[in-house]
Amino acid sequence: MKNIFDAIPEKLESEIFESLVESRNVQIERIISKGQASPDTGWYDQDKNEWVLVVKGEAVLAFAEGPTVTLKPGDYINIAAHRKHKVKWTAPEAETIWLAVHY
User: Fold this and answer.
1) How far apart are CA 88 and CA 19, in angstroms?
2) CA of 93: how far to CAs of 8, 33, 36, 48, 79, in Å?
3) What is the mean pLDDT of each run of 10 residues along the chain (103 residues)?
């Protein structure tokens, strides 16, 4: 048994992406951010759908088309495949822990 809050480093130089479960069609990962954001240029343009839940912390997602979305603990969003998006902001003073399901 594991816990989503285990093994969180005190200093996060960069985001941590950790695969928790992976199969041919589904990947579940834990992402840990602390003040990180996507580069100003470019967008994520993924081949799979992505369901994202913020477990702890806060984040802002921007979309190439559509409104910016603020996510707080318990908030989730489903991002359709090829919907261009990026992480605009994550809380700098505390970790943001995401649960992402790629399917």
Assistant:
1) 23
2) 14, 10, 11, 31, 26
3) 92 93 97 95 96 98 96 98 98 96 98
What per-residue confidence (pLDDT) applies to 11? 86
Contact 57, 96 (CB under 8 A): yes
Q: Give the amino acid at 84.
A: K
Number of residues in the chain: 103
Hey, what amino acid is at 99? L
Amino acid at the residue 37? A
Amino acid, res. 101: V
Topology, domain 16-102: Jelly Rolls (2.60.120)
Q: Whole-angstrom Cα distance, residue 2 to residue 92?
A: 26
pLDDT at position 13, please?
A: 87
Torsion angle of C-alpha atoms 24, 103, 73, 39, degrees rounded to 10: 100
